[in-house]
Write a structure and sequence with these properties.
10 strands, Rossmann fold, 6-stranded mixed beta sheet, globular, single chain, 38% helix, alpha/beta, 244 residues, 2 domains
Length: 244
């Protein structure tokens, strides 16, 4: 059984059919890339998985449980975490305190009331900062980080709750080529911690980091398979030659 199973999901906005009978499966320990032309339904599908949107038909199952209509907060408690394209770090707090707050979201009320969580979480926060190349920026205000560094901080914050599935919506948007390369290096080892579903427009990046690719076009799955199989798919080549 896959960790995430999306079955025949459909969603409309008025007369616009955003998704039509979409199937998707993400296995544990897998980095799964979701690609497609603009308007193909990628963000709508991610929002249906995260709980920001409720589909009109179909089901979303996570860890064997039907979460199609489960509120986002309950999905998060079940082990699903998401980082949207626009960063949501707290710019007036230090990089360290942003990560500490993310980890404190799972701390017990008793430890928060006794003010012990900061001491208990110090080592994990430092480890996160080191893993995401932010240790030297620990005392710096998050709002002064470069765009790429803010993206890395938010990915670290999304991982702070120890999810079993991480959703990333265009994590390299606005990054330099070097920042994109480093982001790939940071994500690759995360397979041992959680599965990852990534929406991306950067085909070189998504090809290099993904185990499996699913291609959406006009709200439907055009093709799905290994990176090599998708690169060889004539259907996919036609779409990217004519519509991207």
């Amino acid at each position: 059984m896959a960790l995430l199973e999306v079955a025949r999901i459909s969603k409309r906005f008025g007369d616009l059919r955003a998704l039509a009978d979409v199937d998707l499966a993400v296995e544990a320990g897998q980095i799964h890339g979701l690609i497609g032309p603009n308007g193909s339904g990628k963000s709508t599908l991610m929002k249906c998985i995260a709980g920001a949107l409720v589909p009109e038909a179909g089901t979303v199952r996570f860890a064997g449980r039907d979460i199609t209509r489960t509120p986002p907060a309950a999905r998060a408690r079940a082990g699903l975490s998401i980082k949207f394209q626009i960063t949501s770090v707290v710019p007036a707090l230090s990089v360290y305190d942003n990560l500490l707050l993310a980890r404190q979201s799972r701390a017990s009320l008793a430890s928060l009331l006794r003010s012990t969580s900061r001491h208990l979480l110090h080592e994990p926060v430092v480890a996160d900062l080191e893993r995401f190349r932010l240790l030297a920026r620990a005392d710096q205000l998050a709002g002064t980080l470069s765009h790429g560094e803010q993206q890395w901080l938010e990915i670290a914050m999304a991982l702070a709750t120890n999810p079993t599935l991480l959703l990333l919506d265009e994590p390299t948007a606005g990054m330099s080529l070097e920042e994109r390369r480093l982001t790939g290096e940071l994500l690759a080892p995360l397979r041992s911690r959680c599965a990852i579903l990534i929406v991306e427009h950067d085909l070189d990046f998504i090809r290099d980091v993904s185990d499996v690719l699913t291609v959406l076009d006009q709200g439907s799955v055009l093709d799905s398979g290994s990176v090599d199989a998708i690169q060889a798919s004539r259907k996919v080549q036609e779409v990217y030659l004519t519509r991207v």
